[in-house]
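User: Can you help me understand a structure? I only have the sequence.
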Amino acid sequence: MKQNRIFYIIFIAFISLLPLHTTAQEVPANLVGFVATDSDINVRSRPNGAVIFSLPPNMSVSIVDESEDGAWLSVELLDGRTGWVSASLLRVVESAISADLVPITPDNAEQLVEITELASTLSTGITFSPDGRLLASYSWEGVVEIYDVRTKILITTLTDHVGVVTGAAFSPDGSELATSGFDASVKIWNTQTWGERTAFLGHTEAVMSVAYSADGTMLASVGRDALLNIWNVQTGERLHMIDVGSGQTDVVVFSPDGTTVATAGNYTNGGVQLWATATGEELWSQRMSGNLQLAFSPDGKTLVVSGNSSNLAMTGWDAETGVHTFSISSSTGGSGSSIKFNPSGSLMAAGDWSTGTFVVADVESETVLFTDSSQRGNRSVSIKLAFSPDGHLLATTDSDTAIRIWGVHGSQ
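Assistant: Let's start by predicting it. Here is the structure, written out as tokens:
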């Protein structure tokens, strides 16, 4: 008996020295799994374990582990949820977005580099989904293309507009996409099925721009009929039909708190106007010339206008009073085609129609930090841009049918 006990102790000690057997093994970093089925797939607590949630078609997830036999993959969503998925249900690719990218800030904006590009049609603009996973590109060719940013997979193409598609905006919860076009319509798409949910028909000429309020309850649209329409998104009721009184209106943006909406005209009817969304009352206006573009700062205190001088100027205005607060100029030209704040409000990026270049400027110091002047395609067509919601990426598009993704490497 004593010998058996000694043998048992020696055996246990020997086993403890052996490497532990696990159900997972290391996988290369920066892999992405793309749901390659036409229906939802189950995510489990462990291989063959209980179902904890599901993934819809066209969803992408980070691959963080693999079972020893390779039959199961451990995945992580952008919201932090994790679980196990059958490897046969995912298309696995290396992410086009480097894992070492850091948020673009005034301290590193000079180090901005092109990370990757997506082939597209001749785009008139781009916008990120709220989670940063998708990029919608709308085009001169009358279509809207939806890309998964990390995999560069074209998820779907929306083709129901007749003529040029002029604008697009995701709802704040990402469940819908609104688009506008030369066909005088505003269409609302379900982002799970990519079917058209409804259409708002309240313009008599081309609709040039659309924007959601931050709470997702209202949608604003403007067009060549000089109308600003504000809609109840859920019911389709037109809350306000406002004659802006300045001819063609090209741009509309909501303030972050949704209490006001700003509009801007074009060369011949240049002007910026601010409206109260509750009453439709005009709060203030500024007469300006040029191909004007608008953006509210994330805190809602400043409305910035680009494209109203011989140089590409970004002028700041107090959103409450309409008083001029600052100007930032570059030497790239004077025809604004796009302007966006990064999520923190520390940077502005602006595109120039006349040269096809774009600049990134520091808001606090009022200086231009980065200028892209590389010649690509026909530079007479506008450059549009968008920051990703996490501030890591800047997407740009111009006339050579490519969407470029820019970022800053953490090692730089």
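Now, to help you interpret it: The first strand starts at residue 24 and ends at 25. DSSP finds one helix and 37 strands in the chain. Let me know which part you'd like to focus on.
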